[in-house]
Write a structure and sequence with these properties.
Elements: E1 4-8, H1 9-18, H2 24-40, E2 62-68, E3 71-78, E4 81-89, H3 90-99, E5 112-116, H4 124-127, H5 142-149, H6 152-158, H7 160-164
Parallel strand pairs: 1-4
Antiparallel strand pairs: 1-5, 2-3, 3-4
Length: 165
């Protein structure tokens, strides 16, 4: 369960500005806002919105949400804290992640705004923003989900050339 969501202040400003627009950026911003609101209501990260097919190995415990139209929302789950770090086009997210490959969360707290999660008691909070209803989505950790689905032995066999290089 998440206790606090830490959101980059630039993202909050972007979300406020996008509410007045009617374009592709506004569409992505509204989806990001819906994901953040779902998380604030206590929805699990894997159920808050549509995740990209692959996590990202450049940043530990990274989750990337697909906002549609080529936009992404980059987040990190660290224990009982959830960090909303960056949003933008696929290419800008890729560039940002390359620049922040060895990200230290303690070093970015001065630009983050912390919000307390207020879980809803009704069942609607769990399903309101859910994009999939499979039981396999119940894992809190995105990486843990894939590790349970695909054993290391299978991955090492399939990607033998990468492991041995």
């Amino acid at each position: 369960m998440i206790d606090y969501i830490h959101i980059n202040s630039k993202i909050l400003k972007l979300l406020d500005e996008a509410n007045e627009l009617e374009n592709v950026n506004a569409f992505a911003a509204k989806k990001a806002d819906a994901i953040i609101n779902a998380l604030l209501m206590g929805v699990k990260p894997v159920r808050a919105g549509k995740l990209t097919r692959n996590g990202d190995a450049r940043i530990k415990r990274c989750l990337k949400y697909d906002l549609g139209q080529g936009f992404r929302l980059v987040c990190v789950k660290d224990g009982r804290d959830f960090y909303v770090l960056f949003t933008g086009s696929h290419d800008s997210c890729d560039t940002w992640m390359d620049k922040h490959r060895n990200l230290k969360l303690s070093g970015i707290m001065d630009v983050m705004e912390s919000l307390k999660v207020r879980p809803q008691k009704d069942s609607l909070s769990e399903t309101a923003y859910c994009t999939k209803t499979d039981d396999k989505d119940d894992y809190d950790d995105y990486d843990d989900f894939f590790e349970r689905q695909i054993p290391q032995k299978v991955l090492r066999t399939v990607f033998q050339g990468l492991v041995n290089s």
